[in-house]
């Protein structure tokens, strides 16, 4: 009888990474994936991106709506975590999967991890060991690491960090990054097909812009985003926006995006979600990726695309030579963008070597889960590893 692995996804970006793992699990003779869709996927305000999961013909077992308290404040986030814990305790106690697979660092995934751990269901965690000082995601991610029994970090530095957190090296495997694997294996759209698909002219150089709220440090999300808009006014780029996530302040940023696109429809175009194929295709042909999304520092190195990383949200991650960091004020952003657009920097970016190339990342994860779920460690209490 196959082992059921419950794969939980709450955002468009997360599913874009998990989809390949789910497809590989469906080919396994040992594992059976069972997908649970939650969070922003089920919200019209964030694009109802469950449609993307459905389009991939994923084996969806449940849709669990958790955003009843909204996304506008730290209080709503705290209430959502509590509510998500309650909903997933109910779901897991009835479904009783053999393991739960989660990716990353979001607050709803933190609650999912708690539910699994409290019900003694083994938790498997992708992308532990990262550091992002500018986001509350930092401690959500580290808490997930301590609840998880099996770890798939994205590079060697992060794997070593997970082990230093007291995780047994036998449970930690550096498998590379799923975003890097997508870019290496996915057949991306041609420039002409992308232009047709998004109904937006790509004749002029353009930037791919994603800006999420900084959830640590008390900065104003809209204030910072307005600084970005002021900087973009004076650079020779059209812009494709992908909207902000469901963190507190994200909805306010998205309203500003709608306003600027309505004022300048020939220059600016916005999407709640491009989907993984169009997003990565847009990254391939853009002059620069601008904002503070993890894709700007994790995925752009694979394509050798210039990236401007604004503010502190991604501070602490590995930064490759194609990434320019700047403060979240208009002057600093404009200077960074102008540098990114120079021929010299574009050439430098092309020579970047990604640290996230782990080969067949999805397959390696599936093989690791097969070994764990059929081996003697599964279901045993964790130990704290003190090192050699």
UniProtKB/TrEMBL annotation:
Q: In the UniProt record, does the keyword Hydrolase occur?
A: yes
Signal peptide from the UniProt entry: none
What GO molecular functions are on record for this protein? hydrolase activity, acting on glycosyl bonds
Q: Which residues form the UDP-N-acetylglucosamine 2-epimerase domain?
A: 24-367
* UniProt key word Ribosomal protein: no
EC no. given is 3.2.1.183
Keyword list, A-Z = Glycosidase, Hydrolase
What Gene3D superfamilies has UniProt attached to this entry?
Answer: Glycogen Phosphorylase B
List, alphabetically, the Pfam families matched. Answer: Epimerase_2
Q: PANTHER family from the xrefs?
A: UDP-N-ACETYLGLUCOSAMINE 2-EPIMERASE
What is the protein name for this chain? UDP-N-acetylglucosamine 2-epimerase
According to its UniProt entry, this protein's organism is Ruthenibacterium intestinale
């Amino acid at each position: 009888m196959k082992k059921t692995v419950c794969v939980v996804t709450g955002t468009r970006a997360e599913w874009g990474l998990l989809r390949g793992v789910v497809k590989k699990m469906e080919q396994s003779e040992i594992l059976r994936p069972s997908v649970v869709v939650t969070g922003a996927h089920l919200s019209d305000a964030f694009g109802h991106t469950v449609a993307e999961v459905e389009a991939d013909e994923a084996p969806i077992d449940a849709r669990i709506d958790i955003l009843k308290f909204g996304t506008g404040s730290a209080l709503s986030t705290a209430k959502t975590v509590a509510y998500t814990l309650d909903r997933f305790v109910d779901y897991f106690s009835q479904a009783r999967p053999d393991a739960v697979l989660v990716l990353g660092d979001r607050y709803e995934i933190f609650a999912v991890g708690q539910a699994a751990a409290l019900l003694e269901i083994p938790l498997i965690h992708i992308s532990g060991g990262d550091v992002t000082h500018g986001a509350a995601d930092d401690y959500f991610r580290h808490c997930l690491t301590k609840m998880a029994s099996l770890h798939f970090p994205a590079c060697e530095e992060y794997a070593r960090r997970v082990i230093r957190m007291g995780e047994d090296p036998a449970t930690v495997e550096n498998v590379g990054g799923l975003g890097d694997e997508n870019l290496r294996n996915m057949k991306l759209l041609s420039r002409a097909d992308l232009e047709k698909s998004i109904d937006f002219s790509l004749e002029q150089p353009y930037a791919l812009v994603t800006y999420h709220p900084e959830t640590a440090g008390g900065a104003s999300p809209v204030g910072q985003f307005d600084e970005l808009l002021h900087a973009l006014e004076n650079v020779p780029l059209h812009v494709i926006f992908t909207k902000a996530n469901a963190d507190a302040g994200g909805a306010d940023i998205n309203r500003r995006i709608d306003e600027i696109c309505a004022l300048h429809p020939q220059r600016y175009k916005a999407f709640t979600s491009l989907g993984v194929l169009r997003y990565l295709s847009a990254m391939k042909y853009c002059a620069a990726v601008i904002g503070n999304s993890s894709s700007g520092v994790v995925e752009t190195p694979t394509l050798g695309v210039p990236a401007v990383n604004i503010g502190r949200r991604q501070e602490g991650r590995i930064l490759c030579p194609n990434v320019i960091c700047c403060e979240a004020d208009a002057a600093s952003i404009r200077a960074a963008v102008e540098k990114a657009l120079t021929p010299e920097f574009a050439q430098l970016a092309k020579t970047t070597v990604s640290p996230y190339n782990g080969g067949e990342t999805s397959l390696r994860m599936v093989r690791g889960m097969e070994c764990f779920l059929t081996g003697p460690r599964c279901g045993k209490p964790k130990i704290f590893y003190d090192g050699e």
